[in-house]
DNA sequence: CAGCGGGTTG
């Protein structure tokens, strides 16, 4: 077999995925010219085996074979995949061989530098890009734009995209979807829509990646209805399409997310199931959540970190702490989210001591806590009335873990103190906190004043809230109630008049319960449905039973067996 | 005989 034939065969073996066979053939060749080496190198590089590609490149140098522009562009692909680290030395080599200006080599260099990221990588890439001038090709533009988008400089990338369009460079679906994705990362709906129009004009709208990135853009930056319209119009959908629309709905319309899953005509993957699990958590739909758990196990996704995290969170939010713990304990590797979900789960279900114990285990495991963990812990203490524990956590957050509390945490601590009646301390904390208190912080104090009938501080807090947001309806009602409780009827009436001035009525808080796959919603003192009156009767009976059986019975219910 | 870029979902 001639050397040319062998080289052709190496290429086609690699193209079919038989890289090992190609290597065996390569090793048997009596002499290998630069073309044979390059074919083998490129085979490795384009199948993701950059380690082998770089090793082969070294062997080639050791064998005294001089690389040419073909070799260098291939080896740059491997550099890029390996993080772009060796790009500079290949660049030097290209200069020495006088091939540094050949289009494939420059483009590969731009891409390798841009993939290295950081400040330098992009600057180096941009230097080469600018020096190209009229010699720029679509590949140069795309590498540069993708580099910016990948390293957090989306707007620079979009600027470049605009220049590319002005330069009349032919737009590919690849570049188009990268640019749309950049728009959705920075929340630039307007530019994204312009690209949408452009993509239709250039007949790229039917491309799946383009359409998918548009669905994502509308999910993140517009209303999910817009996203949904586009989704419904798509003649063809793949798993990414479905996942994009389901993920887009899972937080804002979890019920619709479930409906979409039901309509899905292809096999879901673990991302699908993760976001459906969150949808169940958002709905506290335990039975659905359990079915999804079953689907997860059947597909062997049980060991996926994100799926497990979502399951722990779902069971916690559905009040089934037993299963949450079971999933959590089964996890072989845990990240901070796993711990947060479990700690938060204990907290929100009233198991403060377990939460604190687990928090200590987490710290012991070397995980540095964050705001979310502390929020879960302190709010658990607040609900359980453990003022000192909560306060100590708040202090240690600052002193031991060096985390600056955010407004949410302050709000929580105000609640903690307020519930315990320590209104003065709560007020002082608001007064001395390094952040500007918002209506929610003052709202927490006002709520506590209502609870403990403190008219003086309540008036103050209400005044602050109305200053910030005159339409905060709840404020007037709370203040009015405090006045009423203090028999200040004149002020009560005045406050009610103010309330009418906002032209709004307080929205009704709804509760709901899932029974036999049906969801029932109701509000306080709702006598509109027969189920509610029935539930009321049952509740009376239960209360009677609980009185009789005492705390042991309550304990059992709480453990949710 | 061999070579570059680049896609959308958490």
TrEMBL record:
Keywords, in A-Z order: Repeat, Transit peptide
PROSITE patterns: PPR
Keyword Transmembrane helix: no
InterPro entries attached to this UniProt entry: E_motif (IPR046848), PPR_At4g14850-like_plant (IPR046960), PPR_rpt (IPR002885), TPR-like_helical_dom_sf (IPR011990)
Regions annotated as coiled coil: none
GO biological process: RNA modification
Ranges: PPR repeats: 33-67, 137-171, 207-241, 335-369, 370-405
GO molecular function: RNA binding
The protein, known as: Pentatricopeptide repeat-containing protein
Organism whose genome encodes this protein: Sorghum bicolor
